[in-house]
Amino acid sequence: MNSIAIILGITLMYATPLIYTSLGGAMSENAGVVNIGLEGMMTFGALIAATVAYYTKNPWLGFFAGGLGGMFLALLHAIATVSFQADHVISGTAINFIGPGLSLFLCRAFFEGAAQTRTVPSEGLMPKPLSGVFTQNSIPDIILNQPITVYLAFLTVAIIWFVLFKTKLGLRIRSVGEHPKAADTLGINVKKIKYISVLASGFLAGLGGASLSIAIVSSYRVSLVSGQGFIALAALIFGNWKPQGAFASCLIFGLAQGLVVFFGQRGVNTALINMLPYALTMIVLIVFVGESRGPSANGVPYEKE
Question: Is the pLDDT score of 164 beyond 70?
Fold first, then answer.
């Protein structure tokens, strides 16, 4: 029973960065802007969060700064795709090169040429609100004694769902993603809605990176993100571009990562097990991408006539 609890605890922890990032993808793509640059935004957010948390010893400031870091790269993506009607995939690919490259450059600048940040002190890491609530090493403690980023991720799912499906802004976002010309004729500022959505996407992806560098681990390094932005994108597709679907998909991918960590801690040869999250991503894309249907105008540049 303890083994199952450990796997569930690890699943929640490792699903969290995917949840933030996948929700970011939902915001952008429901507005018609393909964002495969989530990996780069996530990476830059992780670096900024770890750097700010290290120097200020304030995890909340680091967490918010990580979101702003992702938003900065999202602004570049929005300028390219919305203002200049650049190809969304090419722009996102460029962001995925810029994010890690800029992160390494700034890391070397801030930490005397090192390729990773110094270890964030304990007071700079995200707190665990349920620490000490349950008996130590009991099943509830193993599963629920998580960084607060886990619980904020659950709350964020509800917020994004409410915004997209229960508010006027959400209706406008979805109408722009489905039929921007019709939305334009109704007086909706299509470019403004797209900018808001892409910037929100970058902010959430930055939070995903921050939840890695100052909650799961205590530093940034080049290999920290390692394709998790792409896994979050696959979870978004698997979840049919809906927040609740993306959330459920991220838990599945988090379980795959949890199994990798669990068996790795027990001395099992992980040469093949380490492939599990990425193999699962490929299987999902091959099996479900043809059946999933995103917003009709997703990835189609729009220019007001």
Answer: yes
Question: Burial of 141 by CB count in 10 Å (0-12 exposed, 13-18 middle, 19+ buried)?
Answer: middle
**Dihedral, CA of residue 64, residue 70, residue 72 and residue 75, to nearest 10:** -130
Cβ-proximal residues to 182 (8 Å cutoff; 6+ apart), any chain: 175
Residues contacting residue 258 through CB under 8 Å, at least 6 positions apart: 7, 8, 9, 10, 11, 13, 14
* Residues 30, 173 contacting (CB under 8 angstroms): yes
CA distance 301 to 305: 12
Question: What local confidence, expressed as pLDDT, does residue 199 receive?
Answer: 98
Lowest-pLDDT range, 39-53, 59-73, 196-210, 275-289?
Answer: 275-289
Amino acid at 76: L
Burial of 160 (0-12, 13-18, 19+ CB in 10 A): buried
